Amino acid sequence: MTWITKLRQRSVWLLLLIALVLSFSLAACGQQVNASNNNAPNNNSTSQQLQYQPNQSTHSNSNNANSNLQSTDQQVQSILRQLDGARNDVNSSNASSSQDNGQQP
Amino acid sequence: MKLLATVRHIPGRFVAVGILITLTLGMLVPSTAFAATASPHPCSSTDTQCFIAVGNQFIALRQTALTALSGKVTARQYDHLITIDQANVLQSDISTNQSGLTSLKSKLDAETNSHVARQDVVNIFFQFRIFAVVLPRDYRRLYLDIAVNIDIKLRSLGPRVQQAIKNAPAGEQAQLNTLFNDYKAQLSTAESQFDLAQVDFPALTPANFNYNRSTYLTTLSNLDAAEHTIHTALKQAGNDLHQIAHILKDK
């Protein structure tokens, strides 16, 4: 066996090794993607459960009533921010109202 | 003579480049000026296609703005900030204007006479007044609808807030009651403006804008004043509630 033949055999083995490593890596990546996809709904349901926790113990005592008030206050502050947004929309519509004034061909 | 001699010595390629620059600027300046300032006479009186093209641009702008408003109405409905009925009133008005503009576009596209095409373009402004009347009015109506519903929500919280104050330590009661009284007063202030604001909407029409401008502007000003009072009152009520919640925290 000449040295050229040996070199060819080694190259083939090296290529096979690289292909094997690549296939393992791809398989591992695929599993990770599947795992994260499967976890996504679980994470959502967990967060929903956390959100609903305060409501499950409503009216049990005055501490809970106060914590409900805190939560209600947060909701109110949130909708008041949306009211600010609606106010900004009114102001924007005022700003663009000049587009109808004296702009005729 | 000196000037002529100087000009004669300028290399030919500089002259050619100069002419090219001048021609390019000559073509660019009128088009950019038209885009920026929307010159009142961009079309020659006989150029039907120009009126059609310009009219279509004006209509597209208005359709886009109406679609944006419609999207906001839908979003606020999904947020439960307005009711289905309130959303329907607004969507109906948007739909009427969009249909009207679509019909006008069909008419305009079919015009062969430049004077009629020009009148169609004028009608985009004169009949519809989307930017001057429809959008300002409908955004104010959307605002008022949201404000009315927030007021209802805040009013419904009253008994719960009162109960929480009763359960608070005696030393906090005076401050909490002051805040709660102001909370109720602010809601009453907002509610006193709702009816005043509602009656303004029917007068905010393109017809009044065109033929009865002073009445239109006075009505719009009254509506703005009412909505400003409502906004200030609701924000203050929200601030009172926030302070009450803060004091009662961990009690």
| Low confidence ranges of chain A | 33-59
CATH architecture of the largest domain in chain B: Up-down Bundle
- Determine the oligomeric state from the structure: heterodimer
Structural class by sheet pairing and helices of chain B: mainly alpha
* The CATH class of the largest domain in chain B: Mainly Alpha
Percent strand of chain B: under 5%
Order of SSEs of chain B, N→C? HHHHHHHHH
Count the strands of chain A? Answer: 0
Largest sheet of chain B: none
**Radius of gyration from the alpha-carbon trace of chain A, in angstroms:** 32 Å
Order of helices and strands of chain A: HH
Overall structural class of chain A, as computed from helix and strand content, comes to mainly alpha
Shape of chain B from CA axes?
elongated
Helix proportion range of chain A:
over 70%
Number of domains of chain B: 2
Could you walk me through the main structural features you see in this protein, from its secondary elements to its overall organization?
- The complex is a heterodimer of chains A (about 100) and B (about 250).
- With about 100 residues, chain A is mainly alpha-helical.
- Chain A is about 85% helix and about 0% strand.
- Chain A contains 2 helices and no strands.
- In chain A, about 10% of the residues are buried.
- The model of chain A is unreliable at about 35-60 (pLDDT under 50).
- Chain B is an all-alpha fold.
- Chain B has helices at about 1-10, 10-35, 50-80, 85-110, 115-130, 130-165, 170-200, 205-210, 215-250.
- Chain B starts with a helix and ends with a helix.
- The relative contact order of chain B is 0.08.
- Chains A and B meet through helix 2 of A and helix 3, helix 5, helix 6 and helix 9 of B.
